[in-house]
Write a structure and sequence with these properties.
Elements lengths: L10 H5 L24 E6 L7 E3 L1 E5 L25 H12 L10 E6 L5 E2 L6 E2 L5 H12 L3 E6 L22 H20 L4 E5 L17 H18 L4 E7 L5 H7 L2 H4 L4 E5 L7 H4 L11 E5 L9 H18 L3 E10 L5 H4 E5 L18 E3 L1 H13 L4 E4 L1 E3 L8 E5 L5 E7 L6 E6 L5 E8 L2 E10 L2 E6 L3 E7 L2
Parallel strand pairs: 1-19, 3-4, 3-12, 4-7, 7-8, 8-9, 9-10, 10-11, 12-13
Antiparallel strand pairs: 1-16, 2-15, 5-6, 13-14, 15-17, 17-18, 18-23, 19-22, 20-21, 20-23
Helix pairs in contact: 4-5, 5-6, 9-11
């Protein structure tokens, strides 16, 4: 784990891997003990050491157009969020989920799937635009009202006019000749300009989601060399027009697969990579202990920009596992952000329980045998996933600074992460993924101030806990629980 000692929240310095000399602390041994073997542990939050990293904030994806149930096909039906929601439900969605109940702002980034959830085209089928009236403007209004910084714009497929099969679904680019790639880059700039003109700020850009994937929905396949050619031609254009946008690669396996390796081998292309992005659907948070996500990153940040569950099992284990996945990416790999997949999925999509933070009912769904408590144009939380993410959205504001925690033993089922808010307030998160046994954290907080606590779990959301006063704290976390403790001054 690297130590970062930059002292400002500048995203550009963070993204350029400007980690420099500072205090270092050896990690405690990694031990995977059962909860029966480990009932307690000792911890020290090292606010006296150099800051570890600046955490930019979290992201989500928005389904602003239709997809077939089970991710099968692109229906002509016009349906999406915020479009389908009533005016009052839009406001509630922005306030309660996207702001996380905060008065200012919650999520920082909105991932926008170009060619999938934004897939209208002009007559030439080479430029993207609204598929229904006001689509982009609605997204811009959502971003403004929810206090989101901007869109993480990423292509599931270029517009069909650039494809070998003339379709959003599968195929590849029709040509990789330099003139064709240059023209495609100009068209992608036009796509971004179209969004920006309608109130959608551009915060991130990705050339292609999962570039080796064939799918029954929008997709475009690239070999490693084809990806390098396209990235090398288009990324400089994006950076020239949108210099503050984070350009990432490759929205699947980062620097490790053939696409990332091809870009790494091209020095001119590599300099346009601001970060490497990974997808981790269904993954156990233990992977962040032993998985290698940084050795080939060449000093560039790494993060997960898609996380979801591929099956619809509802379990408390998944709730805590998701929270630990966020924490472990940051603690062990200095990830500056982390993305859940969908904010809301429609009641008509079979995959919704594993994919979403909540559900909405579109106007055409009159089958109330599923989600009978969700009226048309309304939405509800999906507690399994929302309760895993909600505490980070609410208690870890943008540009929070993470600090080192000394652990008597690093346990996979009991995790801790500590940070300070931009206002300097100390906060720490605790988990207990044991299904049966409580776990007691003895924590030296290095501060004598009082801490308020909130608890989350499969059926628990923001439950207030009795305040405790430092510097030495003893906190017993029940089985399958997540807790956030924040200083009162």
């Amino acid at each position: 784990m690297s130590l970062h000692s930059s002292h400002g929240p500048s995203r550009r310095s963070i993204l350029r891997g400007a980690a420099v000399a500072g205090a270092t602390t050896a990690l405690s041994p990694m031990v995977n003990l059962s909860s029966a073997q480990a009932a307690s542990g000792s911890y020290a939050i090292r606010y006296d050491l150099a800051r570890q990293q600046t955490i930019l904030g979290l992201g989500f994806e928005i389904q602003s157009d239709s997809i077939g149930s089970g991710n099968n096909g692109l229906p002509d039906t016009v349906t999406g969020v915020p479009y389908d929601l009533t005016a009052s439900e839009r406001t509630r969605f922005y306030q309660q989920m996207l702001k996380g109940g905060r008065s200012d702002r919650g999520f920082r980034y909105c991932r926008l799937a170009m060619g999938l959830y934004f897939r209208g085209t002009d007559p030439s089928k080479k430029f993207m635009q609204d598929r229904y009236p006001g689509q982009a403007a609605l997204l811009g209004d959502m971003i403004q009202q929810a206090g989101i910084e901007g869109a993480a714009v990423e292509y599931w497929s270029p517009a069909p006019g650039w494809k070998s099969n003339g379709s959003y679904i599968n195929g590849s680019l029709a040509s990789f000749e330099p003139a064709a790639l240059s023209a495609l880059g100009d068209a992608m700039i036009a796509d971004l300009d179209y969004l920006a003109a309608r109130g959608v700020p551009i915060s991130m850009w990705g050339l292609q989601n999962e570039p080796g994937m064939r799918a029954p929905y929008s997709a475009c396949t690239f070999t490693g060399e084809q990806y390098r050619q396209a990235f090398a031609a288009i990324a400089p254009k994006i950076k020239a027009k949108y210099p503050h946008a984070m350009i990432h690669a490759n929205s699947w396996d980062g620097w490790r697969g053939p696409w990332g390796q091809a870009v790494k081998a091209d020095a001119d292309a590599l300099r346009y990579v601001d970060a490497w992005t990974f997808h981790h659907e269904d993954k156990n948070s233990d992977l962040q202990f032993s998985g290698d996500f940084t050795s080939g990153a060449l000093g560039k940040p790494v993060f997960c920009n898609e996380y979801e569950y591929m099956t619809n099992e509802i379990s408390s284990y998944r709730t805590v596992n998701t929270a630990q996945h966020i924490m472990n990416w940051m603690v062990f790999h200095d990830a500056p952000t982390w993305f859940w997949l969908h904010a809301l999925k429609p009641t008509t999509n079979a995959e919704a329980p594993g994919f979403s933070l909540g559900y909405w009912r579109p106007p055409h769904d009159q089958d109330f045998t599923r989600f009978p408590d969700v009226p048309v144009g309304h939405w509800k939380f999906n507690p399994m996933n929302w309760n895993a993410v909600a505490g980070f959205v609410k208690y870890m504001p943008w540009d929070s600074v993470r600090y080192m925690v000394d652990e008597s033993t690093r346990l996979k089922d009991q995790r801790i992460m500590a940070w300070k808010t931009p206002a300097g307030k100390p906060v720490f998160a605790l988990t207990n993924r044991s299904s049966t046994e409580p776990f007691t954290y003895t924590i030296d907080t290095q501060t004598s101030q009082a801490f308020n606590g909130r608890r989350y779990g499969l059926s628990t959301n923001d439950k207030a806990l009795p305040p405790i006063t430092g510097p030495e704290l003893s906190v017993t976390v029940p089985p399958m629980s997540i807790e956030f403790w924040f200083g009162t001054s």
